[in-house]
Predict the 3D structure of the following.
Amino acid sequence: MNSAKAASRAGFGLSLKGRALRYLAVREHSRTELERKLRPYEETPGQLAQVLDELQARDFISEARVVESVVNRRAGRFGASRIRHELINKGLGAEAVAQALVLLKGSERERAQEVWRRKFGTPAADAGGRARQMRFLLARGFSADAVQRVLRDARSAGEVADDVQVPPMPTVDEGPF
């Protein structure tokens, strides 16, 4: 058994502040996230709020850094809707979320285009394939307008590979019977 486990069993575990700093060392956390994670370790009422107030006063907890971190990590793979949902779940203020969305909306189509290119690369040959590509991008949180533009631009740009052939439908005369 390592010394950390032995110390916590003996009643010498990390303080709330120590736990909070450990979480913050890994990645940026919002105050709400830290409250959720640290609530089980609070020994006296108000202790957690005091620790979080102190960390926020020392700028260890910053809403702006959390927004920036989430946007930087997620923007290359997800649309504004999905990132908005994640920011709200982190307990960030409406103003901070709105500012992040303004930045994301400007590059929504380009980001959707890049995600589509990495995943598919060529336009679908049929309606079922187009629907599959559309569902994929919509599930990633891209707006319907951005998705439609990406798929329309791909088709109009003639990005269909020459080797992609759609087999002709058999006629009644060509049937096996």
